[in-house]
Design goal:
Shape: elongated
Number of domains: 2
Strand order of the largest sheet: 3-5-4
Structural class: alpha+beta
Largest sheet: 3 strands, antiparallel
Oligomer: single chain
Length: about 170
Amino acid sequence: MKIPSFSKKELLVGAGIVVGTIVLLRLLFRKKMNTPFILKGGYVVPKGTPNMADALHSFERRKSDGFGGRGINPDVTKLKVVVDSKNYKVDWEATIEPSKDGKAYIGFSTIGSAGGGADQRALNQVEAMKKWVDGAKDYTLVLDFKNPSGIYIRQFFYKYTKPSEFPPR
């Protein structure tokens, strides 16, 4: 019997993205948010797959044939922040996609400052911020935010990897 091959799409929608993204979001948004965030995913076991019942709970890749939900490393590719300083309200939106470089960007660190001199104070915090998470590497700036109106804010959002825990694919 021929072992079926799986398209990239089938692997990408696997439950592994849920696991990786939940880790990412938990690190990204450490405080409870007022708005729920729902992430959905799934996969279908193709007919003829060996041990189909076993494949139903292959949320990680099976050693026997590589089938399973885990197929990508996550990456936050876009981050949008809107600050309404008049009403002290912040809205944000993150776009999570498969990592193009194969690295698992599993967390965020952010630093910044508000008011006069905020630019330099924020810049002065970058190197210290990169030491907050043990084992974190590949710090990459996702958003250099400057509040366009109201209270001036300068905020840097960096994503990072932890290759010892989530290796590149």
